[in-house]
Amino acid sequence: MIKLKYFFKFEKSKKFDLPLRNLIKKINDAIGLTKSESIVFWFLILAFTFGIVVKLVHGDAAKDESSKFDYSVFDKEFEKRSAEIEKVVSNKSNTISENFAGKDAESVVSSFKVNINTATKEELMKIPGIGPKMAEQIIKHREVYGEFKRIEDIMNVKGIGQKKFEKMKNYLTTN
């Protein structure tokens, strides 16, 4: 069997030894590269040089106007859809402001209160800070311990502390 060590052994070429090898050695010494770093460095230099040559040779193909995509159709469609959405949003905000015109913030919030003793999971999830898991925990607590006597009792549910209660107390009721 042939040993690979001897199979891949090349004789140093006298032609390569002269100016190019000396130049590479001087550059490596000046930069302070190890042998491994030198191999990677010169590979990258050759790869970038090859890329630049390819770009220069085939660069004219990129200047071809037929290969560019026309986005104006999509821009017009985007503007059309944006205008439709803006119209719907402005109509809804006008309706909301008409429904609550002349009312103070406290009366508006009180119209959105949720009875924590009778609320379904979906209704509980409308309260700020209450997700699906927390809504299930509230319902489970209600089933095990009975109705909440006052809204502060919701802090007995695991996961609802003083901070969370302060954020949601304006949306809660027990009657």
UniProtKB/TrEMBL annotation:
Domain Helix-hairpin-helix DNA-binding motif class intervals: 122-141, 152-171
Key word Chaperone present:
no
User: What are the entry keywords?
Assistant: Membrane, Transmembrane, Transmembrane helix
Q: Does the keyword Cytoplasm apply?
A: no
Q: Where are the transmembrane segments?
A: 39-58
Which Pfam families is this protein grouped with?
A: HHH_3
InterPro entries assigned = Competence_ComEA_HhH, Endo/Exo/Phosphatase_dom_1, Hlx-hairpin-Hlx_DNA-bd_motif, RuvA_2-like
Checking PANTHER family in the record gives: ENDONUCLEASE/EXONUCLEASE/PHOSPHATASE FAMILY DOMAIN-CONTAINING PROTEIN 1 (PTHR21180), ENDONUCLEASE_EXONUCLEASE_PHOSPHATASE FAMILY DOMAIN-CONTAINING PROTEIN 1 (PTHR21180:SF32)
The identity of this protein, by name, is: Competence protein ComEA
Query: What organism is this sequence from?
Result: Candidatus Kryptonium thompsonii
**Organism phylogeny:** Bacteria, Pseudomonadati, Candidatus Kryptoniota, Candidatus Kryptonium
